[in-house]
Design a protein that fits this description.
Length: 428
């Protein structure tokens, strides 16, 4: 799997370098980039301001692990002197795997042009879809040494998709103008950065534990990932194989699940693995979900066994969407959150155990009430386990696409730092 992924990225990089060889960055190529991210208080979605256009302005995007490209609202207030559109049958359109061509498009610049490429895009929250126009413009990121942000790096002729205003008005956070996709696809954000700048095919996310602080995404860096007061978390990551679905999603293999160091009885172990067609089972990540969603029988097995470990603690009436709740006064407070039994996901790889402690397993559903932060998904989702944002917060996650591995750490609060402790103020 690893050598196939490396071949994929080599071919993608060669193709993109040929496509865009006429364009160059306006500053020396960096080794890595850094992007601040935050969780929107109203919607709980991940949001980032990415600089783009000419002159440069910050543009707000939802960050989605499963969207295959970057799209933005071009219909309203789009002003840029560097905007352009690849023509139908061009190399750029072929790289985006689109054959749709606007033959008689009528509209105001820069949203609609004749003889330009169409691209199917979707609002991943409302699931409304439409055909947008493939376009190019400047995008810019701060370089980094892993400890501080450095000079801004401009990337001309960055490939993205123009969307109508209506698509951003449906259930996206206020002020957001598009979606920045990080899926395993040729024109996803991190893959184009890799091919354009020659940086490593790696991105590392560290999602903040509160809506008041900024987390971080590193692009192209193997480390360091340094958080105040000078803690490099890249040195303590564990690794597990990373696979990719036919829909360009990221999957890991959970071999077993333990609670309080005891195997969970009654698990349908068949569902722990992706099925032969790649269309069901397994464990994936979803940054659009506020909480982890479990297949119905898996949810029942985990919640029942978790409750059994706390049999002496009285339950209270569940608060939707959760199924198991307690009064918070029964639990001590620790560096890793409420003092409850850990939930361990045993993964492929040496010592690859993802331990979910109270910080990521218990949520205050209302004052004085803590609930197990997992949701019953029934049979509605392809994956058996869909890991949501709450279970990812304050957990460094390194997606090494060249080696097809996921690196992950424990909750940063356990080593007295947080994902919001990257030093964005000092310049390298």
């Amino acid at each position: 799997m690893a050598h196939l992924a490396l071949l994929y990225f080599t071919l993608t990089s060669l193709t993109s370098n040929i496509l865009f060889s006429q364009a160059s960055t306006s500053s020396p190529k960096p080794k890595a980039l850094v992007l601040p991210i935050r969780q929107d208080a109203a919607t709980k979605l991940l949001v980032a301001n990415i600089y783009g256009r000419t002159p440069l302005i910050p543009i707000s995007y939802v960050i989605d692990l499963n969207t295959r490209h970057v799209w933005a609202n071009c219909e309203s207030n789009y002003n840029s002197t560097t905007f352009s559109q690849p023509k139908c049958k061009s190399a750029q359109c072929k790289s985006a795997h689109t054959s749709y061509c606007f033959t008689n498009c009528q509209g105001a610049r820069p949203f609609c042009h004749t003889n330009t490429c169409g691209y199917l895009l979707e609002n991943p929250v409302s699931h409304q879809s439409t055909i947008g126009e493939l376009a190019q413009d400047v995008i810019a990121f701060s370089s980094t040494n892993g400890k501080n942000p450095g000079p801004l790096v401009r990337i001309p002729d960055y490939l993205f998709t123009c969307a109508p205003s209506a698509l951003v008005e449906l259930r996206l956070p206020k002020g957001v103008q598009g979606v920045a996709g990080l899926a395993h696809a040729p024109i996803a954000l991190q893959n184009v950065l890799t091919s354009r700048l020659g940086i490593k095919p790696i991105f590392t996310m560290c999602i903040p534990s509160t809506t008041s602080g900024d987390g971080v995404i590193f692009f192209g860096s193997d480390g360091p990932y340094s958080f105040l007061p000078g803690i490099d978390v890249s040195k303590s990551l564990k690794y597990t194989p990373l696979t990719f679905s036919p829909f360009d999603e990221y999957y890991i293999h959970v071999k077993n699940i333990k609670i309080n160091q005891k195997p969970v009885p009654g698990l349908n172990t068949t569902l722990l693995s992706v099925n032969d067609t790649g269309s069901g089972g397994g464990t994936t990540f979803n940054t659009l979900l506020p909480y982890t969603i479990l297949e119905g029988s898996t949810f029942k097995a985990i919640t029942s066994f978790f409750a059994k470990q706390l049999s002496k603690v009285p339950q209270v009436k569940p608060i939707a969407p959760f199924g198991l709740c307690y009064e918070s006064k029964h639990f001590s407070s620790t560096l890793l959150g409420p003092g409850v039994p850990s939930i361990d996901l045993e993964l492929e790889g040496q010592n690859a155990v993802w331990s979910i402690f109270g910080l990521n397993s218990m949520v205050e559903a209302k004052p004085g009430v803590l609930c197990l932060a997992f949701v019953n998904g029934g049979i509605e989702y392809r994956a058996n386990i869909n890991i949501g944002l709450y279970q990812m917060k304050d957990i460094p996650m390194k997606f090494d696409l060249g080696k097809s591995v996921l690196g992950f750490g424990g909750p940063l609060s356990g080593i007295r730092t947080h994902c919001s402790n990257f030093n964005f103020t000092a310049v390298a």
